[in-house]
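Much of our argument rests on the idea that a fold can be written as discrete symbols. Part of our work consisted of pairing the sequence of a single chain with a tokenised description of its backbone. No coordinates are needed to read the tokens, only the vocabulary itself. The record that follows shows the chain in one-letter code together with its fold in token form.
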Amino acid sequence: MWDSVRRLGAGVVGVAALLALGRQAAVGQQPAPAANANVYVNPYAAPAGRLAAPATGRLGYGSLTPVGAAAAGPGYGTLAASYANPNLGYGSLTNNANNSPYGNGGNGMNGYGMYGTQWMMNPYQGYLSGAADLTRANAEYYQTITQARLTRQETIRSSLQTRRAFIEEAEWERQHMPDPEKIRQEGLRRELEHARRTPPLQHIWDASALNALLRYLIAQQGLGVKGPDVPLSEETLAHINLTDGSSKGNAGLLKNLKNNSDLQWPLPLQREMFKGARDNINDLMRRAYKSAENGSKPDNGTISDLRHNYEKLKDMLSANDQLTPDEYIQSTRYLKAVNNAIDALKSTSVVHYFDGSWKAKSRDVAGLVQFMREQGLRFDAATPKDEAAYVSLYYSLASFDRAMQRGARDSGESER
């Protein structure tokens, strides 16, 4: 029984083998497909055609393209896309019949792909390209750093030039700045020219014009220039106030207090409304005058009371609206003289007003100029009762000055 089964199995296997052989023969007899240039051929896949060795001398190891593609290129087959030149590929491994390096065979123009093949970077080329980029970036870095340093140096150089320009400009300004002494001398020259050309009465009363002439006459006397004989009356000299310039006060008003008399108030200030403050100032001035006449400075209490009553009288005058403009100006000028007298009483030099050391003692202008030069004195401002004497003295000084100018010109011409 088992033998019968074995024989039956062997028969079945044999029939299956015969059927398989017949199927393979039928497949091998199918015709080759038609050549299509647009069919993409995978160069890395096993070729569907046969490995034939054509009779042409330009085929290498045999075409890897389908058998029907008789125009396919040599070598390992085309590696290009279907739209590219089908003759491209790695090229033939045999020599071309015409021995041309640009033919279809060998490593000519058709080798490694030209027309339409995709570019693939060589490893060495990528390394060298990266090294070139690194070298270029390093060079650009150093170039940028160097340019920045040059720019910084240019900025420092420009800053130094600016500082030098400032210093040179300051030096130029100092060199061309007017000399203070020249400015002072120019001011004195202008004051003298102003005093010689009939100045306003106010400049005579405040003694500015008199002092301008006095400075010039003292300088001319020092040069040895002799002036004419211009006499001065004692009445005029009695109303001239002198000072050494150490105090801004003027004690000329105190000369009216001789023989225990009162100050000579102007009519507007003699009104009844000003009587209280006016009488207090008279009493305090007489007390201060006696102290200065005895050779001592008045006590601080007397000076403080004088200042208080002066301020009170000044406020009353400012608040009064019954005075005319002329009366108000006259009253204000007199109060200013009272204030100057109070300032003079605060100075220790007030005693010189009464001991005769500051009294003008001369019979002519030349003697007065010499006396004031030797004592270091100058003219002080006039009080309201001294204004006429100051005008008279001005004309005497102006006459003496003109005569000295003529004498200076004559002496200069004789020396030539």
Remarks:
- Residues 23-86, 88-116 have pLDDT under 50 and may be disordered.
- The chain has eleven helices and two strands.
